[in-house]
């Protein structure tokens, strides 16, 4: 039987701890972060701490790997650490402590999309597949040898929210099979190819702003990528911030200046987008549903009425 310590937070950490609990191995400690009021922390917020306590697993709550955390891991004497969505740096003295080291679970198909928000970035880049990788933790961010990986296809209308749900469903079977192989001595390592490695940074409000000089297809993709509960794609019109909940690419073409709010079209309001030459007609982005600053969600036709004009410049 393998002695397991988990490091994790939110739904990703919860799924990893669930797998460890169901594996038949001995979960001797669960390490997690404290509950936060930050909006991001409220997304996909299944509690690792609550799950551990419900199964009478000792819990250590910490923001980072301080002396108290390191001491708790030493006393647990793990054979392996499983980490998933542990948000701060782990020193070598921690990840190299167990007999079998530390296995990190990352929601991308490494070596591509190391770093942050990998599913969202992958969707924006029109990747055909997303997935989950289990790799050995070393001193490089998401760069250690791969021990297991599984992928799923990206559909033509997929949203980030749908893909995150689908990839989190991969965590438990992948962790279970990894622990089984570890216990049986059949787990194999595959070095990542540094020539294929890509890294992506955290997203901020800047990445959610709509640039209407982009194509309508790119804007429609951004709307799907920034689906609830993620911060929605947005723009300003006459000083008001409008979040786009649903939009589609027009069947017809519109010429003129990108960012011009025009007429009702196909059930929504058409806004001129970028094309391959100034003023040349191209598909517009049709805004279907908006979220206003007061939280109300309304049809774009209801909000704009007969008001045309240009979106505000940033």
Quick structural gist:
This protein is an alpha/beta fold and 314 residues long.
CATH topology of the largest domain: Rossmann fold
The CATH class of the largest domain, by name, is Alpha Beta
The CATH architecture of the largest domain comes to: 3-Layer(aba) Sandwich
Average pLDDT over all residues: 96
Tell me the number of helical segments per DSSP (H or I, 4 or more residues long): 9
Give, in spatial order, the strands making up the sheet with the most strands.
3-2-1-4-5-7-8
- Could you state the CATH homologous superfamily of the largest domain? Formyl transferase, N-terminal domain
| N-to-C SSE string, H for helix and E for strand | EHEHEHEHEEHEEHEHHEEEEEEHE
Q: What overall geometry do the principal axes of the alpha carbons give?
A: elongated
Assign the structural class, choosing from mainly alpha, mainly beta, alpha/beta, alpha+beta, or little secondary structure.
Answer: alpha/beta
- Give me the count of strands: 16
Keywords: Protein biosynthesis, Transferase
GO molecular function: methionyl-tRNA formyltransferase activity
Organism: Gordonia oryzae
InterPro entries: Formyl_trans_C (IPR005793), Formyl_transf_N (IPR002376), Formyl_transf_N_sf (IPR036477), Formyl_transferase-like_C_sf (IPR011034), GART_AS (IPR001555), Met-tRNA-FMT_C (IPR044135)
């Amino acid at each position: 039987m393998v002695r397991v310590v988990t490091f994790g937070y939110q739904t990703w950490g919860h799924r990893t701890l669930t797998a460890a609990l169901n594996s038949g191995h001995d979960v001797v400690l669960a390490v997690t972060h404290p509950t936060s009021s930050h909006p991001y922390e409220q997304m996909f917020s299944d509690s690792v701490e609550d799950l551990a306590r419900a199964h009478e697993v000792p819990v250590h709550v910490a923001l980072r790997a301080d002396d108290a955390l390191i001491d708790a891991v030493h006393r647990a004497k793990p054979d392996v650490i499983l980490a998933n969505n542990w948000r701060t740096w782990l020193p070598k003295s921690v990840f190299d402590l167990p007999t079998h080291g530390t296995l990190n679970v990352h929601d991308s198909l490494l070596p591509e999309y190391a770093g942050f928000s990998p599913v969202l970035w992958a969707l924006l880049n029109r990747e055909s597949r997303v997935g989950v990788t289990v790799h050995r933790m070393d001193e490089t961010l998401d760069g250690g040898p791969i021990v297991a990986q599984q992928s799923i296809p990206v559909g033509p209308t997929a949203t980030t929210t749908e893909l995150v749900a689908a990839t989190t469903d991969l965590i438990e079977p992948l962790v279970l099979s990894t622990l089984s192989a570890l216990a049986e001595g059949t787990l194999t390592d595959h070095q990542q190819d540094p020539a294929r490695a890509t890294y992506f940074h955290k997203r901020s409000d800047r990445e959610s702003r709509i640039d209407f000089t982009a194509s309508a297809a790119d804007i429609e993709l951004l709307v799907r990528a920034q689906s609830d509960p993620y911060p929605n794609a947005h723009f300003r019109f006459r000083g008001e911030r409008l979040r786009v909940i649903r939009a589609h690419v027009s069947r017809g073409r519109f010429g003129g200046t990108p960012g011009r709010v025009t007429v009702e079209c196909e059930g929504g309001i058409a806004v001129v987008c970028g094309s391959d030459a100034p003023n040349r007609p191209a598909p517009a982005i049709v805004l279907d549903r908006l979220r206003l600053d007061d939280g109300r969600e309304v049809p774009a036709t209801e909000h704009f009425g007969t008001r045309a004009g240009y979106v505000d410049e940033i």
